[in-house]
Amino acid sequence: MEDKSKSKNRREFIQSGVRLSLALALGSVSGLALSKVVKDDYVWQIDPFECTQCGRCATDCIMSPSAVKCVHAYDLCGYCDLCGGYFKPDANALSTAAENQLCPTAAIERKFIEEPYFEYIINEDLCIGCAKCVEGCTSFGNGSLHLQIIHDICLNCNECSIARVCPSDAIKRVKASEAYHIKGDFSKNPES
Amino acid sequence: MKKLKYIFFIFYLLTFTLPVLAQQQRFPKPEFESGYVQPSTQTPEPRALSLEYFDVLVLLVVLSLATWLAIKKRSRQGILWLSVFTLIYFGFYRNGCICSIGAIQNVALSFADPTYAISLTALLFFILPLAFTLFFGRTFCAGACPLGAIQDVVIIKPISLPKWLNKTLGLIPYIYLSLAVLFAATGTDFIICRYDPFVGIFRMDAKFHMVVLGISFLLMGMFVARPYCRFFCPYSVLLNWMSRFSKWHLSITPAACIQCKLCTNSCPFDAIDYPTNEKEVLKSGLGPKRFLVYALLIPLWIAAGVLVGKQSHTWLSKANPDVYLAELLISNPEIKNDPDNIDVQTFLASGKTMETLVQEAEILRGKFYIGSMIAGGFLGLVIGMTLLNTVVFRKRQDYVPHKGNCFSCGRCMDYCPVEK
Ligand code: SF4
Ligand code: SF4
Ligand code: SF4
Ligand code: SF4
User: Fold this and answer.
1) Burial, B110: exposed, middle or buried (Cβ in 10 Å; 0-12, 13-18, 19+)?
2) CA of A9, closest CA in chain B: separation in Å?
3) Which of A65, B227, B243, B335 is deepest in the core (most CB within 10 A)?
4) Which domain holds residue B376?
């Protein structure tokens, strides 16, 4: 009997020793990580100046349709009649017929404001984030149309599945308090 | 030196690209006469930070409840309802993200990448379950893990697997963990999140092959209980370690075991250890000699692991998109003319030189070289220890849960006839 309790004691001693060291390990891992921890949470966002409009935003988001949508930075827009983001470059007649529109889902609404200006509004429910209009606007216009991850749709995946495949590494973790990079408010600033 | 280069690069960028960007305002903004007011760009806020902290609070409450139910209240019913709650809250409502399993990668990345700061929520999701497990056993698995919960509710007719199979398949989580940490630390990929089989079900939306994977896991889970938890989950490795040394682990009987054997088949996960049959131990002839041999083999296993890691690092590093691209361009230069290869075309258009790309790829490969060797050595150690464990016999008089493997689900408690 004595022997048994002795070996039991020994086992318990070893157990609590290991437990203590595991607790210490856990503590130091958290301590080390804690030294770098940020209170602010992270979200994913596209740097519009780095995006090369490859089109993967439409296909690689875990949401379908994608959480990436085109946004319009109206401050930069020229309100052009002949919008490079709205019309196909080879559109034969400048009618707003669907076959002349760049957007595959006709998500851009064109509204006459005053001669000769037109306003372009993105219908987010239709936009699939394919970046076709962005490409058009960037190459022929002011680049006021650009992609952003819209945060009431985005699930904030631990690793954004588009970021992983973005060929220009345009998608990065940003602070949740500055969750958007809208062109005009946001310029490519060198410290970041 | 690298820093200097970087600064030059930024300088270059500033002086040459900014004017280009400024030029982009090709058409000036009109001055409207009709009093038109431009709409504002909609930027819906992300989920509030306070809600993220609320999730941590929920986790804490669920963990405490699960612990209390398993150890004090001894109620399987309670645990079941708790896991249903977890399934609904962390699974379907929170879409299976954030989760403690995936948080391993955030922790690994935060150690490897000085520019990445882990968020407090992710860190707490990683630490809290481990801390609880260290004292109370894997009550996290019982009630607080959405992945565990979804598998737990589909168990219909669990079959018992032979011991050797359990042990062999039980090595997979170690491999998974090593790879996950390796890929996360090199900034390559978060494979745990990417191949989470149930996240598609929680979100009710996923790529086809992930849906197939999720459903097949659930189908398999009807007969092989909790297959992901037992044979894949990388977090289970850490939980297992913690749980083995837990202070107050769930026990099958509330008082003393009377050897009635009623609980022997109650565990769907083969996690109940039987009393040692001394006669059989003697007969099997597994004596100290075997032990010595296996113990001496461990360094060999580690060496073999390191070697395998070393050999496979090139192959593993191809999972990194930068390394892959560099390799592709070197081995297959004609690909530059392929207009459909988006990655190559983007690289060519980016103005980045081949040299920088190769340099970056080489640094990454260096990380993989070291990382794969560590991972290999670790796996070698694990294999060696597992083998050693097969010849170690701990004296057991009673039917007890295997502290490492037991999920503290509480099923076995209902089978024990002993009253308090
Ligand atoms: S994947 Fe990257 S480059 Fe392609 S459209 Fe999205 S942000 Fe732009
Ligand atoms: S072209 Fe593509 S990105 Fe632009 S509005 Fe249409 S769907 Fe959205
Ligand atoms: S974080 Fe997830 S939901 Fe959001 S844009 Fe990326 S893949 Fe889509
Ligand atoms: S609590 Fe009992 S039934 Fe549940 S996993 Fe542990 S040993 Fe098996």
Assistant:
1) buried
2) 14
3) B243
4) 284-389
